[in-house]
Amino acid sequence: MIQAMNNDTIAAISTPEGEGGISIVRLSGKDSLKVADRVFCSSGGKSPSTYESHTVRHGYVSLPDTGEIVDEVLLTVMRAPKTYTREDIVEINCHGGIVFSKRVLEACLVEGVRLAEPGEFTKRAFLNGRIDLSQAEAVLDVIKSETDFSGRIAARHLRGEFSEKIRNFRNEIIEILSRVELAIDFSDEDVKFSNEEEIKKRLEKARDLVVNMLQTADAGMILRNGASVVIAGRPNVGKSSLMNALLRRDRVIVAPTSGTTRDIIEENVNIGGIKVSLSDTAGIIDTEDKIEQEGIKRSLDKLDLSDIVIFMLDYSRSLSSRDENIYNSLKSKNMIVIANKTDLKRKLDVAKAEKLFAPEKILRLSILKKRGLEDIETALKRKLFKGNIIMPESCVITNLRHKKILEKVLETIERARKVFSDEYNGELLASDLNESVHELGLIIGETAESDVLDKIFAQFCIGK
What we know:
Blueprint: H1 2-7, E1 10-13, E2 22-28, H2 32-39, E3 40-42, E4 55-62, E5 69-78, E6 89-95, H3 98-110, E7 114-115, H4 120-127, H5 133-144, H6 148-158, H7 161-185, H8 196-214, H9 217-225, E8 227-232, H10 239-247, E9 265-271, E10 274-280, H11 290-305, E11 308-314, H12 321-330, E12 335-340, H13 350-356, E13 362-364, H14 373-384, H15 400-421, H16 426-444, H17 450-457
Parallel strand pairs: 1-7, 8-10, 8-11, 11-12, 12-13
Antiparallel strand pairs: 1-2, 2-6, 3-4, 4-5, 5-6, 9-10
Helix pairs in contact: 4-5, 5-6, 7-8, 7-16, 8-15, 15-16
């Protein structure tokens, strides 16, 4: 199946649909230049198959059967193996918009090329050895990056820095395995190739390396995927005002009357380089109003799925049983507690509230006077990263698939280490190490399976 795919010549529009200055139609495969010869008429009179690699020519795309000119274009020829897919590639820059790019693509498809599947260009880059599987996944991360932070980490992964770390680690396990297997092969001989104490120390070092990598996973995936933050509290404590303040714009209607927000309002915001999906919820109260009941139900459902809850109190009102009930329903969550309206006369017993809500410290905020907002943003980052702010220069795990694989690797290494505390058994040790080698190979694609590849590349858009 994979081999047949590689023999096809594929084509797709590689730029997003919609209005724009240009669109790019990309072809890859052994017949790319032949197809270009048939659909492209150069202003210079020569055929694309005669062009030198990595050169651009001006001309027109026309329909071979009628000669009708489709569009004025620039055509780029890139010959294998120095291309994205390591196959011959032709890229046609036509005018932007839906009509012209589709007509140029259709002119190519008529000539016998196949429409590319999602992610097929990148899949070919992987199958042809230009990039490994982790780098292929990083291509998608680069495309989907929404903050400078996530973009910089994705770019490091795309350059292969994470892959190199995994590859070096896998080679270390292979080296340990080779010593163990050699000892097994010559177990009847009076020869000692590597003492058990050395292997034990190397396994301990390998375990520490995996543990350190896994410690970056939760924060890394937040950087990659973003975090869900929900603002909760009783009505009229300033939830909508806080959302507007964090968004730096008036997104939510704010009014002095309670119950203004009856449904969940959700927006994305960049907080300190982190993509945050911020949700303003309906005030949680007992009510007979059916609309309010539905809004509160949706709020509770959203709270269950959140990474962090911002629980708001009113600095100008005494702590109520309603506040306590809301807090008790949320206390299992990762939480920040805020007292808003510090510009008004204090009625909230802060000391009592902090004792009740321990170990959470109550942050003071005046949205009206714009005081305390930076403290909330800092608290959000600390909560998300458990106090350890990861920098883009760090080598971090940002992919759930990688995390699960490394968790399995840790299990196999722990089993291997247990061999030394039990009765030493070379065959069991070799089996565990072989499993570690196999699992690590899944990250970089050395031992990739076709169903895993299909699942990964199905996440891509057509044209990449």
